[in-house]
Amino acid sequence: MKNNLHQEFINIFNKEADNAYFSPGRVNLIGEHIDYNGGLVMPCAITFGTYLLTSPNEDGVFRFRSLNFSEQQDTPLQASYEKVGETWFNFPIGVINSFIQEGHNLQGLDMLFYGDIPIGSGLSSSASIEVVTSFALNDIFNSGYSKLDLVKLSKSVENNFIGVNCGIMDQFAVAFGEKNKALMLNCDTLDYEAVDSNLGEYVLAIINTNKPRKLAESKYNERVEECQAALIALQQELDINYLCDIDSQTFSKYQHLITNPTVLKRAKHVIEENDRVKLAAKALAGNNLDEFGRLMYASHDSLRDLYEVSGVELDTVAEYSKTNPNVAGARMTGAGFGGCAIALVKGDAFEDYSKGVTEYYTRKIGYAPSVYSSLIGNGVGLLNEVAI
């Protein structure tokens, strides 16, 4: 499809595009539900994403077109904008609004979007649209933002214009992603390390459970409260600001301070998962994919048993993966209760894995998952400069 985008642009706007951009989606390889506990996450950019072709117009109008959605919009240049229903073009309009509010002079643009990220899969299609739009505007109008500025602006759009209370990991990963590297990121300080992650003979299988995530928001808030309760209990004897300020060894000495067994389980997951991220970085940097796979399984088991955010659909994917000799590791990724799992699968066995997990899952759950193959890709950039 991407090869035909320039022709599609001509068909729609009767002129050629001046610029083309790409921003990926992302998965979190390991480090789940610890970003709000001062811990480390390890996302990477994937090779699915959002394409944006643009050309300025003299009409002072932003024209939004998409090859994914039938809704289209022509919006005159004005002093401010508000969200319009639940339509896809709220994301680029929100970015444009932020640029204008921060005093940048824009002009009319014809914009064609196309995304190959499965919508609603938890692979950050919204962050991908926000970041590709902000990168394009910054490039076209010489607004002078750094990449980190664009990440913060895009997150602000998601929080304040769209109204979704997300953290910064998604926008950060799609902006700063590097080919064959995972980003070990501290979501609190935004310090990060790009960890060599050459998958060798393996590919990243992304398995969308196709289960709507209805419980995630309420359970998410519940887990945040439980972690806060664990922190308060530990602060009786420890001078810490976050659960992830201590490691598993220290936790074992002080866990008696947490008297609620459920809260204890939540804290145990958080602290051990943070340790797993550090071990995973070492395993990837040392090209030890077997060890990385073991840590993926351990992460999933902890999210299932201690944090209780997986569910039968995600567990079924992990369950099948453990029986397949061509899989090094698998785990749920994202908030849980649906969404996606990931697996490290030998590339030449991917089709067999896809068929096997689909049959196993369908037999147990009653409907099929969607299975995709990806490598670790680059972050946002001009299309001719991004290796996709």
Automatic annotation (TrEMBL):
Residues involved in substrate binding: 32-35, 220
Cellular component GO terms held in the UniProt record: cytosol
GO MF terms, alphabetically ordered: ATP binding; galactokinase activity; magnesium ion binding
One record GO biological process: galactose metabolic process
Signal sequence annotation: none
EC assignment: 2.7.1.6
Matching Gene3D superfamilies: 3.30.230.10, GHMP kinase, C-terminal domain (3.30.70.890)
Domain Galactokinase N-terminal: 7-56
Domain of life: Bacteria
Segments forming domain GHMP kinase N-terminal: 91-177
Swiss-Prot/TrEMBL catalytic activity: alpha-D-galactose + ATP = alpha-D-galactose 1-phosphate + ADP + H(+)
Active-site residues (renumbered): 170 (proton acceptor)
Pfam families membership: GalKase_gal_bdg (PF10509), GHMP_kinases_C (PF08544), GHMP_kinases_N (PF00288)
Keyword ATP-binding recorded: yes
Listed PROSITE patterns: GALACTOKINASE, GHMP_KINASES_ATP
Record-listed ATP binding positions: 66, 120-126
Family note: Belongs to the GHMP kinase family. GalK subfamily.
Role played: Catalyzes the transfer of the gamma-phosphate of ATP to D-galactose to form alpha-D-galactose-1-phosphate (Gal-1-P).
UniProt protein name: Galactokinase
Species this chain originates from: Mucilaginibacter ginsenosidivorax
